[in-house]
Every structure is written in structure tokens, then in C-alpha cells.
Write a structure and sequence with these properties.
- It is a single chain.
- It contains twelve helices and 21 strands.
- The chain is of the alpha+beta class and 469 residues long.
- The protein has a domain of 137 residues: Ubiquitin-like (UB roll).
- A hairpin with a 2-residue loop joins β14 and β15.
- α8 packs antiparallel against α9.
- The longest helix is centred in the first third of the chain and has 17 residues.
- It is globular and about 70 Å long.
Length: 469
């Protein structure tokens, strides 16, 4: 069986030897679905009984009239679960979870030197500080032992996001080893569902209180005084682990069944559309019980597809998110003609530039649709190795014998690895695949397919060097 797969690594596109670029363009059957699942159209619904007050949420535009009425009624019943401002966010009970720093006793407090800011930034910093004070997220402090600076970060809309330089404090904090879920398993579990609802907490980190003994260590200086956080801010070393701990405590009995969660990304799922309402009611009830507030601007309810952890999940399977990956897929080919755009470079458009440009156009229209693997059914593994990169593709046949991609991985070779003989590069691809896709290897029987099979290559070697044997 010929291996005709095209793989990508960060900035590099590669094909198994000895295929040429033209030979690689016709993708195998499992990669020929040109349809790309995109986030579906959404409808804005006002949950407020007073038309003057706007409390909007987003629901799918593709619901039946009965489904739409049912969903709106459910969301209105639980509208207290949403927050449209900081004032509507009571925060999680510290008895459930609070953020601790566990700074070592040997750590010496650091007071950072004062920084100066642009006058325009200072005005926006002042406005943000006033909002944080009004919400109770920060309090003034007189004699801080730890003191960090503000780092103003420009948003796309020109506004300033106030971040804190917690690097010194983070160095003094040991890592929280609370386990994060396996992202690959979460994505597989979210695909193939009849209906989905995507939910995101309103200023999620700030819903978790700081431990009283550690709160003042988060002190930061501004042109208008020194303050410290009473809630968990962004930028702390173990904030993600604490948030995951909170979500696990709240939804522990539903994870892997009715919901999937990775830190602040929460997905409510159901195999059939009819059972989605009872599942969603259960999730909203749990949020109400623990005072967790959701951000209506970042939630979407009753959809059949959506973005999750860098992928687009839907009933048919899993698509690579074009917003996240197109630049990595085309950058290798762009390298051929982007130097022509540099100042002072003579513009000469040759056959190589045209070939690379045509390849970019092909890649844009051929993003693959992946599918979660069926338990027990064996997986196929294809390997690829070029002079600059290695890769692997997992695939699986469906009931009709049609092959579908499950997952693909790739990476650039290091400087030393580029000097490996082809046989060693293929073996390296197998080792990389085994490490990267271990959870798939453990759960399924595996068939190594294609001509780039280490066993087939090694069988024709009369003398094996130590690295291969």
C-alpha cells in the first residue's frame, strides 16, 4: 500500500519520500472531504422580562420552533446563572476552593522598581483600577512585602488590559501538580454528539477567592497607590490548576458523560437533541448551587458544532480550526515567495514561486476532517520522514471500510537529526508517534501501514548499527 499522506509541522509541510509535490497533491480517500465545519449562525435572545434591560445570550439559529421555545424558557429560568457585570458575580465558596500560593519559607520577598507609563495608558489603568475596586476584587495595601508592577497590554480595539508582572512571585511558588485532562481524549469525546452547548465562566479566575494568608502577596503598584487581589488574578503560576480543581469539584460526576471540561472551556453534550435539555438543566442547576456565573457573550447554546481546544467538533467528527492552523500549514510554502516582499529585494516571480503559491491554494481547500476512534476497532499508523521533519497519521476504517483520519502529529528535526540516514528518521518517526499518541496505542490494536515501515526497512539491512538494533 502506497503512503500518499501529506503532513505538516510548525512551519513545515512534508511528504513521504520519494513523492514529488505534484504527486502529493491528490490526497488519500480519508483526506478528500473538502467540507469544513464552521461555527454555525447564532441568534441573540434577551433573557430580561423588561425590554429596556438588555441581557443577551446566544442560541443556535438552526433550532426547530419547539426546540427554540424550550431552550429560551430554560435559559430564562436560570438567568441568574449568568453575569453581565462584575457586580453580578458573588464568587465561589472558599470552602469549595480558594487559591493558595504556598510560597517557600526561604523565599525572599521582591519589591519591583517603579515603572513609568504613557499618559494615555495611565488614564486607562486608572479606569480599570476603579472598576476592580468597585467590584471588590482588589483592596488598598499600606506596607506590602511583595510588590509587582502593572504591565499594560494593548487589545485589538485599542483599549488596555491591565496585567501584573508576577514573575518574581511565581518563581517562589512550587508547581501545583493537579492533573489536567488529556486534550486529545476530550476532543474525541466531544465529537459525534447530537447537540452541544459551549459555556465559559464570567471572568472565571476572578470567581475564586485568594486564601487570606496569601492575598497580600499579590500586591502591585500603580500611579495611584498600591493594591492587592482578594480574588485569584490572571498571571499566577498555578491559577489554571486551581480553576481545574474547582471545575472538577463542581462537575466531577458529570465529566466524561454529560460534560467535558479543560480549565475554563466547558462543553455540555448529548447524543440526541431531545436529551440535551435535561442535561443542560442539570449543568445550570449545578452552577446555581455553587454560585458559578457564566459569561453570556462567550456561551453558545443548542449548537451542532463549535470550537473546542483549537478544533471544530461536530456530529461528523473533528475539523482542524482554520483560524488556528492555516498559517502553520502554508508557512513552509510561503517561505518560497515571502522573501520577495522584503524591502530592497528585486521581485522575480519564477516557477518555484508559482508552484508554492498553487500549493497554498490547495492546502486552504483541503483541511482534513478527523473522527474519534471507535473502541476495539484497530487503528492504522502511517509514518513520514523527510530531510527536515517527521510525522505520523492514525487512521481507522468505518463499518463500510472507508478510511478516516483520527489524529496526525509532526515536528521539525533538530540540527543533529537532519543528518540521520533515512532509516533512522523513519524509526525516529515511530518513536515520536508512540510517545505522542500513547493513549491511542494503549487502547487499540495497531497496524503499521505504508512503505515507511521500520520493520520492512530493517529486514533488508544486513548490518544494523547500534541505534537501530
Amino acid at each position: 500500500m502506497e503512503n500518499e499522506y501529506v503532513f505538516t509541522s510548525e512551519g513545515t509541510s512534508m511528504t513521504p519520500e520519494p513523492l514529488t509535490l505534484q504527486e502529493a497533491l491528490p490526497a488519500p480517500k480519508c483526506m478528500q472531504d473538502e467540507s469544513i465545519a464552521i461555527a454555525e449562525e447564532m441568534e441573540t435572545v434577551n433573557l430580561s422580562d423588561d425590554p429596556v434591560i438588555q441581557k443577551h445570550v446566544l442560541i443556535s439559529k438552526h433550532l426547530t420552533p419547539e426546540e427554540r421555545n424550550h431552550l429560551i424558557s430554560l435559559l430564562k429560568e436560570f438567568k441568574d446563572v449568568f453575569a453581565w457585570s462584575y457586580e453580578e458575580m458573588p464568587g465561589l465558596d472558599p470552602k469549595l476552593v480558594c487559591h493558595t500560593l504556598n510560597v517557600g519559607s526561604e523565599a525572599k520577598p521582591v519589591v519591583q522598581s517603579r515603572r513609568n507609563y504613557h499618559p494615555n495608558d495611565e488614564m486607562q489603568i486608572k479606569q480599570e483600577i476603579e472598576k476592580l475596586l468597585a467590584s471588590g476584587f482588589i483592596k488598598p495595601i499600606k506596607h506590602p512585602t511583595w510588590l509587582a508592577n502593572i504591565v499594560p497590554v494593548k487589545k485589538k480595539n485599542g483599549q488596555v488590559r491591565v496585567c501584573i508582572d508576577f514573575r518574581d512571585l511565581n518563581k517562589a511558588c512550587p508547581k501545583d501538580e493537579f492533573p489536567l485532562p488529556n486534550m486529545d481524549i476530550l476532543i474525541d469525546s466531544t465529537s459525534g454528539q447530537g447537540m452541544l452547548s459551549f459555556m465559559d465562566g464570567f471572568s472565571g479566575y476572578n470567581q475564586i477567592k485568594m486564601a487570606a494568608r496569601d492575598a497580600e502577596k499579590t500586591a502591585f503598584r500603580t500611579p495611584y497607590g498600591n493594591f492587592y487581589y482578594t480574588v485569584m488574578p490572571f498571571g499566577l503560576k498555578n491559577a489554571g490548576a486551581t480553576y481545574q480543581r474547582a471545575m472538577t469539584a463542581i462537575f466531577h460526576d458529570m465529566m466524561g458523560k454529560e460534560v467535558e471540561d479543560y480549565v475554563d472551556d466547558l462543553v455540555v453534550k448529548s447524543k440526541t437533541r431531545g436529551e440535551h435539555w435535561s442535561t443542560l438543566r442539570k449543568v445550570l442547576s449545578r452552577c446555581r448551587l455553587y454560585n458559578m456565573r457564566m459569561n453570556p457573550k462567550k456561551c453558545s447554546f443548542g449548537v451542532s458544532s463549535g470550537k473546542f481546544l483549537g478544533f471544530i467538533v461536530h456530529r461528523r467528527g473533528i475539523d482542524v480550526n482554520p483560524d488556528k492552523t492555516l498559517h502553520t500549514r502554508i508557512s513552509r510554502n510561503n517561505k518560497v515567495f515571502t522573501p520577495l516582499l522584503k524591502k530592497g529585494t528585486k521581485f522575480i516571480w519564477n516557477d518555484k514561486c508559482k508552484e508554492a503559491y498553487d500549493m497554498v491554494r490547495q492546502l486552504i481547500t483541503r483541511l482534513p476532517t478527523m473522527q474519534a476512534p471507535t473502541p476495539v476497532v484497530p487503528l492504522k499508523l502511517y509514518l513520514a520522514a523527510t530531510d527536515t521533519a517527521i510525522g505520523a497519521l492514525l487512521a481507522q476504517d468505518d463499518e463500510g471500510g472507508v478510511e478516516h483520519p483520527v489524529y496526525y502529529v509532526s515536528r521539525l528535526l533538530g540540527e543533529t537529526e537532519t543528518r540521520y540516514p533515512r532509516t533512522e528518521r523513519v524509526c525516529l518517526a515511530l518513536i515520536y508517534a508512540a510517545q505522542r499518541l500513547r493513549h491511542y496505542f494503549l487502547a487499540h490494536k495497531l497496524h503499521l501501514n505504508g512503505k515507511n515501515r521500520p520493520s520492512k526497512i530493517l529486514a533488508h539491512k544486513t548490518n544494523l548499527i547500534w541505534s537501530l538494533s
